[in-house]
Write a structure and sequence with these properties.
Layout lengths: L8 E7 L5 E9 L3 E6 L4 E7 L7 E2 L7 H5 L7 E3 L5 E2 L3 E4 L2 E4 L8 E2 L12 E6 L4 E9 L10 E9 L5 E9 L3 E2 L3 E3 L1 E2 L13 E4 L3 E2 L13 E2 L17 H7 L13 E5 L10 E8 L4 E7 L3 E5 L22 E6 L4 H4 L10 E2 L5 E10 L4 E2 L2 E2 L1
Antiparallel strand pairs: 1-2, 2-3, 3-4, 4-5, 6-16, 7-10, 8-9, 11-12, 12-13, 13-14, 14-27, 15-26, 17-25, 18-22, 19-20, 19-21, 21-24, 22-23, 23-27, 24-25, 28-29
């Protein structure tokens, strides 16, 4: 590995309004695999997948400069925290003590608040690991940050393997009981970010159940079987799981959300809190023959079909990102977990106590060059 894999390179990526310098790190593997990550927001800004002919294809939505990320965006490629996804009414209790966090998504709290981890400058350390080039990113969130209790110390490691796997490993510790649910929020379009649509792609999920939502995107407390619903992404001869068809079936949204499409958490089959990696989803593109498989040690995966993209953002190579230009596949503890454990013992609370270490791993594995028939790998 030492002969073929190299330590990530770094270059300037701009400055924050307060003058702090931001960097962009490049992880490369033989054959054309390449990931770029900035220490602002721990954001994955691009991921290039080799193809049989032509240059590698970037399959991640984002911007070519820091200015795009500073101007406001829907969490492109970011690490969201302390708590990704939603907390109902911005309220929760730990050990009978109540806490109030920002209501930055209607009445609810979303992705860590007004200035979450996606808007922080992380300490970055590039290195060559046993698995491949890696980037360690560290952030300390002081007690009271966005209303959360405890000083939280977090570390995220991105690693690119020789086979083109992208590993995202997250961990946190605290000095006071708190909650944490770090989420990696990349917008994927495995046909290439410039194609600007995922509607011809298909999704297969290892999930027999999903979490129904209220009109604000908060789980109702029910864990429902996917049978007979548009959320049945399981592999079967009769189920093609074409994303365009699913989006149509969910437009308008059954919960009354402003935009249609998928923005729901699937419950990963056979999950246990044992740290083992389990298959979550497989995304396939019939035109290019690419597959993206995701494995995780988390109980759920939020599937979001870019419903709120609205052509107002111009991304890389001048592409104006339209609705459903990409899909987010966010492995996670369940949304609003701290407020939902009263309904289900199997619902992890997301609580973290002193002396414990929160850990979250997700692996992105790409398969290239396959042929497809009726949306299935052959």
């Amino acid at each position: 590995m030492a002969q073929t894999m190299t330590t990530p390179t770094v270059r300037p990526f701009g400055k924050l309004p307060d003058g702090q310098e931001v960097s962009l790190f490049t992880l490369e593997a033989p054959g054309g695999w390449k990931a770029t990550i900035t220490n602002y927001g721990a954001i994955l800004t691009s991921f290039c997948v080799p193809q049989k002919q032509g240059e590698p294809v970037d399959v991640v939505l984002g911007f070519e400069s820091l200015d795009g990320y500073l101007s406001g965006h829907p969490y492109f490629g970011a690490i969201c925290g302390r708590v990704g996804n939603r907390i109902a009414n911005g309220l929760f209790s730990i050990n009978k003590k109540s806490y109030k966090v920002a209501q930055n998504n209607g009445q609810n709290h979303l992705h860590g608040g007004v200035v979450g981890f996606d808007k922080q400058l992380w300490k970055a350390t590039p290195r060559l690991s046993q698995k491949g080039p890696a980037l360690d990113l560290e952030l300390t969130s002081p007690t009271g940050d966005e209303g959360y209790p405890g000083t939280l110390r977090s570390k995220v490691t991105y690693t690119l393997t020789p086979d083109g796997e992208l590993w995202v490993e997250m961990e946190s510790t605290t000095d006071t009981p708190t909650i944490v649910n770090l989420v990696h929020h990349t917008y994927w379009n495995i046909a290439g970010q410039a194609t600007n649509s995922i509607e011809s792609q298909s999704l297969i999920a290892h999930a027999d159940r999903y979490l129904p939502l209220d009109e604000g995107g908060i789980p109702t407390g029910i864990i429902r079987n996917v049978d007979g619903t548009p959320f049945d992404f399981r592999l079967s001869p009769d189920n093609q799981s074409n994303l365009g068809d699913v989006i149509v079936a969910l437009t308008p949204s059954p919960e009354g959300a402003e935009r249609g499409g998928v923005d729901h958490c699937l419950v990963i089959n056979n999950w246990k809190p044992d740290g083992a990696l389990r298959p979550a989803v497989t995304l396939t593109d019939p035109t290019s023959g690419r597959c993206l498989e995701i494995f995780t040690d988390q109980p759920g995966i939020q599937v979001y079909t870019g419903n709120y993209l609205d052509s107002s953002l111009t991304g890389k190579h001048g592409i104006t990102y339209k609705q459903h230009a990409a899909i987010c596949l966010e492995t996670e503890c369940f949304p609003d977990a701290i407020n939902q454990t009263k309904w289900h013992e199997e619902w992890p609370s997301g609580c973290l106590n002193p002396g414990e270490t929160y850990k979250h791993t997700m692996v992105h594995r790409f398969i290239t060059g396959y042929k497809f028939e009726s949306g299935r790998v052959r």
